[in-house]
Specification:
- This protein is of the alpha+beta class and about 270 residues long.
- The chain has five helices and 14 strands.
- The strands form two sheets. The chain has an eight-stranded mixed sheet. Strands 7-8-9-10-12-11 form a six-stranded mixed sheet, with no helix packed on it.
- Helix 2 packs across helix 3.
- The relative contact order is 0.18.
- The N terminus is likely disordered.
Length: about 270
């Protein structure tokens, strides 16, 4: 494990993907990753010099999706943000479906959040090794373009997994988190994950989620991937769920680093 010192509050202790090579029996593993539509970003000038890749196809994008699929294969449930649902820039490839097939995971779902026709299909995605009992999608409050996918695993004692990509402003985030709170308030076993555009301490102690008894095992920087300074990508779980592994992964392909977690499942009875 290597350490990158952040210019902000939290350092980023980066884990190698191999540390999550096999899920322990009786456990569930999760990954959240903003894939930036398969564009590799290594430093700030790439935002300028690779801007054309947001509207134009490139062979390297497919190579990057193959690498992401190899990473996703290690995990049971995966949340993808900033995926393309199949447009000109992606070669009309649904990136969520492509990554799921590359990872050999049979269950996937794409949520279209901004439909720009043949130019771009801005989407969230969720991929699962296990069959979902139920999947729902929701448009989040505020300006159009932000959404959440709700995946329920199991029936008798369900695990509710909610993936999201929150807005940038604090006010909009609070609107969206109040909406998420209403979705999860009746469930005992909850996992929230995604690009939150804010750090975990604010989510846990200064947001509409603050009295739900959630916890996180990290407050480490994930953005930008080449010199992490901001803790934007999170996985939060119900307080009674036991976290057995957690890490920000040393996988600097997108401009975000992926976040991984493993929990015991089913949870031990109190």
């Amino acid at each position: 494990m290597k350490t990158v010192v952040s210019a902000k509050r939290f350092p980023a202790h980066l884990c190698q993907p191999d540390e999550f090579h096999v899920t322990t029996p009786g456990h569930l593993s999760f990954l959240s990753y903003n894939i930036q539509v398969g564009i590799q970003t290594r430093h700030y000038p790439d935002y300028l010099f690779k801007a054309w890749q947001h509207v134009w196809p490139t062979k390297s994008r497919l190579e990057n999706l193959n690498r992401i699929g190899d990473l996703v294969r290690r995990f049971d449930v995966v949340a993808l943000q900033e995926a393309d649902g199949g447009s000109f820039r992606s070669g009309f490839i649904n990136q969520v479906e492509y990554v799921a097939k590359q990872a050999e995971h049979p269950y996937w779902f794409q949520q279209l959040n901004r439909n720009l026709g043949r130019v771009a299909q801005h989407s969230n995605g969720i991929i699962s090794r296990f069959p979902p009992h139920q999947i729902d999608t929701h448009a989040l409050p505020g300006l159009p373009g932000r959404g959440a996918i709700v995946l329920q695993l199991g029936d008798s004692e369900p695990l509710l997994v909610v993936m999201m990509h929150l807005a940038l402003s604090r006010r909009a985030q609070n609107q969206q988190l109040r909406f998420i709170r209403n979705l999860i308030s009746l469930y005992r076993n909850v996992v929230l994950m995604g690009d939150m555009n804010t750090h975990s301490l604010r989510l846990l102690y200064d947001s509409p989620l603050k009295d739900l008894g959630l916890k996180s095992a990290h407050a480490r920087a994930t953005f930008p991937s080449w010199q992490p300074q901001r803790c934007l990508d999170q996985i939060l779980v119900s307080k009674h769920l036991k976290i057995t592994r957690m890490g920000v992964l040393d996988f600097p392909l997108s401009d975000h680093l992926p976040v991984a977690m493993e929990i015991e499942w089913p949870p031990a009875k109190n």
